Predict the 3D structure of the following.
Amino acid sequence: MNAVRFRYLNGSLAAAAMFSVLTAAAAGAQAVATEQQHGRAEALQTFPSPCTKEPVTVETKSQVRVKQQASQNGSTRLTTQIHQQGRGIGALSLRDYNYMSNETTDLRSSTPVTTFRIRTRGHLVCQGQCPLYPAKDDFFVNTTFQCADATANGDCVMTSMQPADCK
Amino acid sequence: MDTHTVMKHHLIALVPVLALTGAAAAHAQIIGTTVPTAPTAPITATYAFTVPVAKVVPNPCSTTFELVSGQLQFTIRTTDSGASGFAIAAEVTSSGIGQDALATGALVVDGTQKPEYSYTYASGFDASFQKRPADFGGTLSVVDLPSRSGVYGNDWFMLRTQYEVNFTNGVPSVPLIKELTVSCPQ
């Protein structure tokens, strides 16, 4: 029931070089390096609505912007912008759901960040013929993004998406 | 989408809880001889902060105002593994209510008020480093979706709280609320 399919469309372009630059900067290199990544990812997942228990298939599209900047003194600045939107459909009722989530971070560190993981929560809003009372069929999903990891080439990648609570 | 910046608000209060576990680095030395020591155990520390929120905001989906009152709770755990690295794990929960009010903050009690909005949110982040950073921090945000109860369940808006958290030598300071913004997504 919990089928997950992540498809990464457009990953990092120069992320491997970015980590080399960050490491060099941490070691005292003079150059100031800035690397910016843009990525798009799609995910398709089916899970039960925590409100009605009906299986809902959710397709999300994520736009990720990651910027890492290494300064002369070895410090690192990491900014991420994650925008998600998508839609879902109930397996039995064929109800439509809209999905959206936004997350922005701006971090600095005197030591290079090896890994950064952020957990966000999105909102699935039932559209059209939806029960309003006593049970409103809107619910939340928790999404985890892994950023600045060597295996992810410095980009942010969605690593999990799980239903949370009924709104 | 109509967005209003409604507050620039500095920190309000805290409830610190600190628990330290693990062993400190050990070096045993006898005169003339250095005795090898066992590997250093990771040192973990847990910190908890509660930051209250109270502000009148314009309802972005209507012409009224809402008195938002709630809190952000932070649970931050640090793990110092010495030469093996340093890690931070932070959990952030947000909860509160919004009550129909006047621009002054006085609650509407003339019978025209609707059921209050309520919201909860949970998020967090993890970060790891090759060594404990002397300075780490920045701004993050939580996005709440306050909604009314019962038959008014379709009445909701977005409440974004931006906060700043800083660590000095691995020790967090009290998170600061930087800004609250509201918007109507419908």
